[in-house]
Amino acid sequence: MRISGTHFRTIWCDADGNVCVIDQTRLPFAFEIATLRTVADAAHAIRSMMVRGAPLIGATAAYGLALAMRTDNSDQHLVQSAALLRQTRPTAVNLAWAIDQMLSVLSHCAGPERATRAFERAGDICDADVGICEAIGTHGLAILDHRLREKNGQGPLNILTHCNAGWLACVDWGTALAPIYKAHDAGRNLHVWVDETRPRNQGASLTAYELGAHGVPHTIIADNTGGHLMQRGMVDIAIVGTDRTTSRGDVCNKVGTYLKALAAFDNKVPFYVALPSTTIDWSLADGADIPIEERDGRELSHVTGRTAAGTLETVEIYPPGSAVLNIGFDVTPARYVTGLITERGTCAASREGLIALFPEHARAAA
Ligand code: MRU
Q1: Which candidate, 177, 160, 180, 184, places its Cα nearest to that of 232?
Q2: pLDDT given at position 3
Q3: Strands 157-161 and 329-332
Q4: Which of 107, 153, 340, 352 shows its CA 20 to 30 Å from the CA of 282?
Q5: Does the model's pTM come out above 0.90?
Q6: d(CA 42, CA 48)
Q7: 242: Cβ below 6 Å to ligand 1?
Q8: CB 278 less than 6 A from any atom of ligand 1
Q9: SS (H, E, C) 282-330
Q10: Is the pLDDT of residue 212 over 90?
């Protein structure tokens, strides 16, 4: 995607073989590049949410192992580094997927070849993610066009999204936002309702930032506003991303997604989930078994923003002493999901639907 006319991916290697990422904790007020030189840097970037979003977490972990092999290519360091990265964040399954992909390549080589192969494989994972997300965009565009026809072409098509499932969450394009970029670029008349997405405001800080940079009309709303808009007929379709999808189509995404799905169901608003197949956990059938991340309560009780003087400041907004619970994700049962938009097409949120698109997983699927 382009920022001020320059094309960026969210992660790339520089001339010195270090890994560069966009520091998402600085957005939307500053566009800063951070350099990752060690596996510890990569682990910190994931844990601190300098990088976040399921596909980008996986890509960063892959490059983290490559950085590890550059320092010390021993088996012991490989195992320790994989364990360090694996424990950074629990919910997005792309993290474990990418680490397993890397281990299967690196277990077949040794010595200096390991670092070379690791950087190659990490690069391949990133390139594949770009292709996958663009394909999701193409399949999702067909759904948006169908919805526009149902409105007799009367735009704008009002799309609601939660959290950030755009290019900042992936390597490029995004998942839920890829169809929106495709539709916008093709001249469709659309408008996006952007859920603020407390506590870290990925909607307000990141989704709004990237939609704005691309020129897509959008409006930020408080997280609790979507249901009201749906009752008033002001939402034509909802599209969100997912951090882990079970083999039966239950979807785990940023907390608050479930309530949007309930409101959409009650108001007969189509509710789609866009995902790369790397986000499917074929070993799990029931969304209740997905590990849900619990984060520091400070993310709720403190807010960072820009002052009138232009400096960034963090302020406390809760009464001191109140208990705080910061749950990162929730599970939307498959019955509330109209369809899953994948790189191979759109299917029902069910075992049958997923297996029809990904028959190679039929035996492994729980
Ligand atoms: O905590 P985050 O910001 O990593 O959560 C990200 C989300 O919930 C996204 O919606 C999800 O990863 C899908 S992104 C393609």
Answers
A1: 160
A2: 86
A3: unpaired
A4: 107
A5: yes
A6: 10
A7: yes
A8: no
A9: CCCCCHHHCCCCECCCHHHHEEEEECCCCCEEEEECCCCCCCCCCECEE
A10: yes
Tell me, using a 6 A CB cutoff, whether residue 175 lines ligand 1.
yes
The DSSP symbol for 224 reads G
- For the chain, list the domains and their CATH numbers: 2-128 (1.20.120.420), 135-361 (3.40.50.10470)
Residue 24 near residue 49, CB atoms below 8 Å = yes
Count other Cβ atoms within 10 Å, centred on residue 177. 33
Cβ neighbourhood burial of 158 (10 Å; 0-12, 13-18, 19+) = buried
Please give the single-letter amino acid code of residue 265: F
Look up 330 and say whether it is catalytic.
Answer: no
Ligand 1 site-directed mutation target among 60, 160, 243, most atoms within 8 Å of CB = 243
Q: What is the pLDDT of residues 95-109, one digit of tens each?
A: 999 999 999 999 999
**4, pLDDT greater than 90:** no
Select which of 23, 172, 236, 243 is catalytic: 243
For 170-190, write each residue's pLDDT tens digit. 999 999 999 999 999 999 999
